Amino acid sequence: MFRRSIVSHATHDVIISGGGMVGAATMASLQQLRQRLATPAGLPTPLDKLTMVDVGRRPTYDPNNIFHQLRTVSVTPVSSKIVDSLGGWKKLTTKHSYYRIAVRHEQANGPLLQDSDRSSSFFINHFLGNKTTTQPLLEFTDLRKPVGFMCYNAELNTVMVEVVEENMAKEGGSAKDALHFESKLENIKLPGKAVVDGPLGTATLRKGEETSEEAFKLVLGCEGRGSPLRDVLNVSSLQHDYSQTAFVCDVRLQAPSDGNVCCFQNFFRDGMIIALLPMSPDSANIVFSTTPEHAKKLTAMTQEELVAELNRRLHDFAPADIPKILEVPEGEMKGKTVRKQGSFPLRLNVATNPYAPRAILLGDAAHGIHPFAGQGLNLGIYDVCALTDVLEKAVRAGQDVGNSVTVGQVFAGEMLAHTTPMIAGMEFIKHAIYGAPGFSCVGMKLLNETPILSTLGKDAIFQVSSGAAFAARHPDCFLLE
């Protein structure tokens, strides 16, 4: 079979590689920025031709597909504001609010741990006692407004692609945007030094047997952890294999009286972490960070065995607080009965310089992190907002959108500003809990119960985890208005 090659004479202002949540949000954001840059005379803008390319099919959310409701994301108030400004928030059918986060640790709360193992020193024993407690070691509550929202990844992705398509339809022929699904970029070539006005980057766009040669001013890598553009950039990075697997599943609950508005997270001395994330008044999503061997055992368990194991790790810690799991729902898939469950490996991979001339990495392509704090997608959404802010200032100053100094370098600084505190904080917590569980429990207890520490410490954590600190850095970005 012959391959047909086409030479494209048009230059793309921006090519977005990856049509997931971050890629689609980036496209929608740049479409809005183009409208802000438009002149009454209708003169061309530096964002007239936007193109998004993705190897997969166009995302279509199906609430009856059990695997479309398997991967979830915790969306912060600031992220929800950004998605709302893009036009996507009102389209979501699932955005379950939660108002409380409760953290427990096996050292103090585990019902099966021997009392003699709870405290190994007088200091720890004085604060924790040597008996189990059902009270959280650390708790965040805000009854006035949601701490966050739980959404389905598949629905969020579909909604943002719909927003992009609606923007294209509204602009009609005035814009030259394009979406290419089941396509990919190959042979990406970038300039070898800092770019001001040229040369442009080039790539081969492949769709099935057809190929075309494309030129671009800026290419954005939004493909996720396995980003091909990241390989092209060959950037240095911080990497760590946690030697863990995340086992995920949906569960049906004995409906709690509060409407199921709390995220529960239990830590274990052996490094395992389990989270129960509320999705509706009587359902939740489980993310269990465990060993690969244990994840396989969980996958192979019977319905009764799995429910018992999950309740032992969650409900039994605090029967009056953590809701009881009744079942892991099952459904039909290709003629077979399957459970709502899955798994994926956990690794840290953070690019230290997520840019090059005419190229920038965003989202998981730039910073793949551990999911226990639920901040992965939020950091990607913050990337979208920060890049939009940087590009608007650069364009209004007459700069090239692919300039590696006024765009790439400035954006990298903004990315580090909102990712570094979160990643450093998560790594500190993980190492403290695993390396010295007793002392980490004391720290959480002091933070939770000492008035001045509770006020200052929790406020500082909230500033970062809610996105408020990020929003404060970008007061002029139209997505946060």
From TrEMBL:
A Pfam family assignment: FAD_binding_3
Cellular component aspect of the GO annotation: mitochondrion
Cross-referenced Gene3D superfamilies: FAD/NAD(P)-binding domain
Gene Ontology molecular function terms on file: FAD binding
Residues annotated as domain FAD-binding: 206-396
Name of the molecule in the record: 2-octaprenyl-6-methoxyphenol hydroxylase
Organism annotation: Angomonas deanei
Classification lineage: Eukaryota, Discoba, Euglenozoa, Kinetoplastea, Metakinetoplastina
